Amino acid sequence: MSGEYRSRVERKQAAKQTKQKKAKTKKGTAWLKTVAIAILFIIVIAAVGGVAAFAYFVKDAPPLDEAKIKDPLSSIVYDMNGKKVAELGGYKRTYISYKDVPKMLEDAVLATEDARFYEHHGIDVVRLAGAVLANIKEGFGAEGGSTITQQVVKMTFLSSEKTLKRKAQEAWLALQLEQKYSKHEILEMYLNKIYYSDGIYGVARAAEYYFGKTDLKKLTLPEAALLAGMPQSPNRYNPYDHPEAAKKRRDTVLSLMAKHGFISQEEAEKAKQVPIQSMLAERKKPQSSVPYDAFIDEVIKEVTDKANVNVFEDGLKIYTTLDQNAQEYVEKLLDSDKYFTNKKDLQSGIAVLDTKTGAIRALGGGRHRDHVEFGFNYAIQPVGQPGSTIKPILDYGPAIEYLKWSTAHILVDEPYTYSDGTPIRNAGGGYAGPVTLRYALTWSRNIPALKTFQAVGKERAMEFANRLGMGFDKVEEAYAIGGVARYVSPLQMAGAYTAFGNNGIYTKPYAVTKIVFPDGTEMDLKSKPKRAMHDYTAYMITDVLKSVIRSGTGQLAYVPGLELAGKTGTTNYGEDGAKFGLQRDDVPDSWIVGYTPNYTAAIWVGFSKRSSTAKLDKYEQKIPKYLLKDLMSHIDDGRGEFQQPDSVVKLPIKKGTNPPKLAGKYTPESEITYELFVRGTEPTETANDEPEELPAVKGLTAMYDQAANAISVSWSYDEQTDETIFEVRVKDGQGQTNTITTKDRSITISNPTPGWTYTIAVYAKDGERMSKPAIASVHVPGGEDQTPTPQQPGDDNQGNGGQNGGTDQGNSGNNGNENGQGNNNEQNGGSSGGQNNGNSDGADTNNGQTDGTNNQETNNQGSNNSGQTNRVNGGTGASGGTSPVSPPLKNGSGVGLGTRP
């Protein structure tokens, strides 16, 4: 029974489980069907939507105009004011047919651009799928899937903007092109349209320009590979300008040819061994018919690099930043013999930018370019090492930015070496000892520059420089004074300096603002501004560079009334000079970079090639300064100024203090310098200076004129400035003292009292500073029996400090003045018997200072004066007993300072 029961139970459980499994199976199948239907529905919807979107995009596609394929459209260039400048197009072309294209060149192009060219019908689905995946992973536009057919369409009919609309139109027209033309015809179109830099279009013209070959079938494998690789980025792979990049690209093409089976691996490796330079013909300089070709050269480079279009065939409207007035003047300066000598191969390049925006206003590509079109452009191509113009970029700018150094920061200019022990010298030799950052940069001292670079550190220096567009991949200590491994261009240097003049905002220099395609589509090509440094760094460097122009190495560029900052620089040959029979200190390059709030200009003067005569003499090294002064005087009206930001504090500092101390109340003006500090780092300690005593006046004379009944007083003073005044104290026969101040060097005392002796003391004053007195006495004849009533002792000493304690018993000696016996009215403090500290002749000499200090009598002992000494009461201006002067003084009125019997 138990066994049957178990069997029945198990049968029920099994039946139940079977029903459950069937139910689950039915549910699972239903769910899968639902998902499949949903996916299919989505696919259908997506397909319908895609077709609809595609139809919407292509409805505005331009027609497949055969005339445009064969007849290229010229482009119009406009200046900054929208005025037409030039028309680009119609250049000499060498058109080739497919039968003229060697198989090797065709294979190189197909391996690089479209390996499945003969298998698709205008759109390569396999390649497109790969591009889609790359775009999903790396973002839209990361990789293109365009075939050669699509590229022909894009170069002929469309703009290069990366949008779904343009890609849809490109695919649609590519399908039509494939239906209308054969593969060989399409490849022929492509090879005749592609751009090869330097204004060269079409593979036939490129072969002639770069290799001197008019027959394409004579091209070698490495030459064909180079031509096949250049169209991806023509300017970047220009073998004349960038041989290393060109070689890398050529070798990539050779590897692709081997990969796709067009050549063997051995052939590829052999071709890679051929040096780029050995393949090239001498660079040609075609005849010019384009105005401002140095500027237009930059326009072409920017448009082709940024928009990847053909400026000579695509019918563009190109709006630029060109200032025709500035451009014409730059070309005039370069072609003039006003500043240049006739030395062989002497050349120059000039770049002028808008300081605030980075817009290129003018480019001087070289001297005597009238018959040269798109030759070597000395304004935009690397021309030499920057010399000391690099110091604000690699040394002092970073020191202020990261270390918050002030312009008063002290650096010691002394014998010094690089970290490896190699000695470093200043230009011209010698050492200046402790100097401020301002002095070191103003006079371009090399040793302080290296010490600054070391304090900042290589990494931070390079980071700062690269934010200014320098593009360094490394920096070494020699870079601190301009010994960079990679040459720089005037355009690059001008771009870096604009950030100093624009509150620390850097904008990569640009010549094109926008382009407009034939279909009305616009593309903005302006560079975007970015902050490269704090505003305090920019302003403080600018303030120091103003010192360079006003009083330093750049004085020859100074323009009165113009807010101009700048830095000079020269290079020398060093050990390389021996190769040309030159000395190590001979100079191949001279620079200046200057800027105002409106314009920035970088000027280079050097040589087109190195030779035994390629050295600048002392005058030729000054040419950039003369050019900058002339240029800025012409283009800048002087409006605007560099505004000091709140992050900067300007303070009076006592010279020579380390760390800097604030100038004190009595610090002489000649010992004060005004320096800049990052707010929060300014000094708080004040220099403890005493007032400096001024030199005394000279040649003081006092003479009585009986006919005029007046006393004439005069003196001389060699140290007089606009701030100098003279204080004249006149003591009469009653001991009353009156004071007059004047800027003149003479006064007249009218109607003096007969019989009185007048004592005159003259002081020079400049602010808080005061000289010792010069003293003279004069006796007025007559009335000698009029003896003044003596006062009580001590009446005249209120405010005297109690030094003398009362009446000076020396007045009877006044009679000796008239009789000429032993008069001791010393001038400038001298006495016949010894030093009297300048106070023996009866005038108040202490001007409110500690009283009585000038009443020294001890040195009068033994004087040849018969005891007749007229001494000055050392009282202050606050003494009692004042009375009006009698007789009156001309040139002012006196105030009684005290009386004596």
From TrEMBL:
GO annotation, biological process: cell wall organization; peptidoglycan biosynthetic process; proteolysis; regulation of cell shape
Assigned GO CC terms: outer membrane-bounded periplasmic space
Keyword Transmembrane helix tagged: yes
Pfam families in the record: fn3, Transgly, Transpeptidase
Biased composition annotated in UniProt, kind: Low complexity: 809-829, 837-870
Domain of life: Bacteria
This protein's name: Penicillin-binding protein 1A/1B
Organism the protein comes from: Geobacillus kaustophilus
Gene: ponA
